Task: inverse folding
């Protein structure tokens, strides 16, 4: 899609605003279904943060089912709003937060809570017993790989081999109000680390080599822990793995019943840097040119939505359209002013938009109350983000 196309579509909108191009989203969905092979797809809601989009994705294919939530409060809210099969991917510890999901469990909704430590199980067992319910739990299997001098992965779960899984299963056997409904292993170092960054060919090569070794190891670990769960007599209905960046490899593991996808739907720019897939920039935001301090410089109002995680250029928003626009190295994207260098052929006047892409898909929605849905040259809908619904989970 061109600068002229979006400029025309949004000519009456005041800025800033965020949009979702449904035509590009549909193409991303198509590609993601193919990339996931015969695995079911669970939507990572943190990378979507919009109820209308969640509903749209679930309705788009039977292969897409279930939501990976980021807090228990969010899961309880989504259950109230009619969603089901909600897996909370990070531990919930505060009593009040755990209790938020109990009404949904009582009305036969499925919400899994994440665990790996005795402390998690003790807390959930206590509350489940007091409330006289059974809480479905998910074991988070650590999927990191250790190379000499490199911790390749994320610091999350303590269960990283069959011995620690055995300890977890022994403990779980002593918790009558908990049920092992799911296993999850998120290989962040494969799914979330790009291996095709521009101008970094040596680093890309190293990452690809580490990934190759890690993929083999984690497949074996996931299978070994899954087999052990079965030996213990557990029968988890969900074995979840992966993320947008690892579908081609996670889908090859027989024991995996479903993959997770979030970021690939909007396709924020962090996901441009993978060798084996390319999704389309479906979501972006517009900032307004309000100054022209000198030739080829267009200063816009706002725009500085920097992403979480390690700091670096890959966390800064990227000018998207018109093609060839760049940030000013000494200023980057600012809280109130973002100067853009543009030397191309588009005529840019005061009041015109510059379209920007966020580094992370879901975080974009924390800065806007709604997404403008665009299709075939029209704004077809305006749908509230989580933030627009007054919800701020994380
Ligand atoms: C547990 C878990 N699974 C899967 C994902 C993948 O999400 P996405 O497809 O948005 O990269 C994430 C992202 O951080 C995650 O934390």
Result:
């Amino acid at each position: 899609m061109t600068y002229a196309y979006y400029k025309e579509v949004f000519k009456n909108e005041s800025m800033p605003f965020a949009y979702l191009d449904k035509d590009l989203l549909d193409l991303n969905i198509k590609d993601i279904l193919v990339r996931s092979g015969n695995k079911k797809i669970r939507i990572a809601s943190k990378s979507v943060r919009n109820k209308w989009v969640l509903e749209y994705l679930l309705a788009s294919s039977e292969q897409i089912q279930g939501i990976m939530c980021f807090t228990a409060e969010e899961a309880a809210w989504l259950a109230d709003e009619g969603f089901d099969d909600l897996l909370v991917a990070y531990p919930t510890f505060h009593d009040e937060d755990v209790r938020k999901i109990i009404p949904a469990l009582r009305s036969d909704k499925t919400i899994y809570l994440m665990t790996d430590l005795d402390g998690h199980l003790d807390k959930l067992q206590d509350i489940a017993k007091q409330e006289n319910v059974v809480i479905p739990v998910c074991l988070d299997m650590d999927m990191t790989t250790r190379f000499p001098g490199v911790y390749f992965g994320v610091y999350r779960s303590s269960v990283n081999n069959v011995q620690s899984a055995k300890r977890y299963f022994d403990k779980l056997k002593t918790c009558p109000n908990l049920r092992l409904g799911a296993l999850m292993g998120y290989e962040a170092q494969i799914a979330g680390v790009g291996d095709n960054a521009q101008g970094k060919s040596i680093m890309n090569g190293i990452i690809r080599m580490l990934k190759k070794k890690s993929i083999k190891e984690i497949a074996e670990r996931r299978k070994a822990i899954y087999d052990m769960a079965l030996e213990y007599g557990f029968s988890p209905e969900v074995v979840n793995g992966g993320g947008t960046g690892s579908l081609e490899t996670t889908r090859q593991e027989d024991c995996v019943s479903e993959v997770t996808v979030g970021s690939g739907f909007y396709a924020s720019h962090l996901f441009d840097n993978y060798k084996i897939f390319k999704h389309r920039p479906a979501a972006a935001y517009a900032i307004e040119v309000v100054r022209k301090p000198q030739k080829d410089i267009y200063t816009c109002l706002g725009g500085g939505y920097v992403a979480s995680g390690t700091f670096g250029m890959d966390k800064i928003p990227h000018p998207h359209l018109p093609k060839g626009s760049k940030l000013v190295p000494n200023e980057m994207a600012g809280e109130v002013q973002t100067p853009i260098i543009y030397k191309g052929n588009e005529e840019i006047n005061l009041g015109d938009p510059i379209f920007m892409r966020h580094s992370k898909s879901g975080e974009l929605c924390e800065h806007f109350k709604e997404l403008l849905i665009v299709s075939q040259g029209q704004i077809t809908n305006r749908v509230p983000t989580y933030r627009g619904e007054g919800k701020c989970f994380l």
